[in-house]
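Consortium newsletter contribution from the modelling node. Members have asked for a concrete example of what our holo predictions look like. Here is one, prepared for the pyridoxal-5'-phosphate complex that several groups have been discussing at recent meetings.
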Amino acid sequence: MNSIETYPPPRVPLRPVLACAEFGNRGQVHRCPTVLDAGEIAQVTSGRVAVALALTALKLPPHAEVLIPAFHCSSMVEPVIWTGARPVFFRIKPTGAVDLEDIQARITPRTGALLVAHYFGFPQDMPRIRQFCDARGIALIEDCAHAFFGSVGGRPLGSFGDYACASPWKFFSAYDGGTLISSRHSLGQIRLVSAGWRYEMKAVINALEQSFDYGRLPIAQAILRWPLRTKDALLSWVKRRRAQPSPDIGPSALDGGFAFEPAWVDKSMSLISKALIRLAPNERVADTRRRHYTRLAEGLRDIPGARAFQRELPQGVIPHVFPLFVDAADTVFPALRRRGVPMLRFGEWLWEGVDETLCPTSASLSRHLAQFPCHQGLTDDEIDWMIGQIRETIIASRQSNNIQRVA
Ligand SMILES: *Cc1c(COP(=O)(O)O)cnc(C)c1O
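And here is the predicted structure:
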């Protein structure tokens, strides 16, 4: 087995941490729609739990088949297996759009539901997909894990599916957060219980810790109106908690784990996460994400050997991240990690059996696509630093490649 290289922590935060920019919604009119406006909601601890609840609510017959895109993460597959259904993978197109012809070819009398994801915040053609499902009597689950914000034809994302799921923790400085949404069915039958005070504490401490790590604490403290004097006591308390980690307090999903844990299916979102999501200045968050995305797109344009996954940022799209396709992925991605550049690799691990024969696009994206943060907690200087690092690394990898070829 290869030894696994360990990388330094990212020099700038991969996702938002507690800071001024995370607050300010009180009394503000929501002009920027979110999945919370899309229908009835239930607030749970993670997106995968929301997927599981959606599948349960559909009451699929035993051995039903659920259509899942070949470009996915395990959070989209594990809940399907947990409910006893069978995942059937379908192709996506190079643009990230689901391939309806391929889906059509995979429909059987057992097909119960279709799961589609708005990759990185870019909406699928929902009116068309909705029509497709209605014509065939198939339920539609809309995966808004990357699309907390956004709308299509004036309708918020999350309102097209029979059920939709979201992962608000990916957009805010919240430790946990999954949302089940339905504009078509009542969620009244879903009973959630608190995960307990230790979990609530963990959610608070984790949010603070992330902020401490990036020196954003002073601002957060002022906002939270905690007397500055408690800062040291709080810090040493957090350190003591760190010395004796209790991994069983929260779902492993939230500590970087990939497993689906049925024990979390009936637990409600932590109170602090609910508050952070409600207090978020949606308009400002959305504008900042679009601005950072555009800055990254411009800064990374014209590098030989790399291109933006999406050519444009249409109106109404609020990106989760900036996805970049890199030819020399095998050398560039580890090099970027060594430099402390924050990066996600959605789809890096595909389910067993999903390969280039099943979907060439997914296999290629799995290997060559990385996502860089464009969240509201970053400064322009930090975005520029990332652009500089990415450019340098890609250009250096091409030069060393050429040298090797000459030698
Ligand atoms: C993150 C994610 C989910 C849900 O994951 P959680 O980590 O459980 O919140 C579902 N679908 C997609 C596309 C995702 O990226």
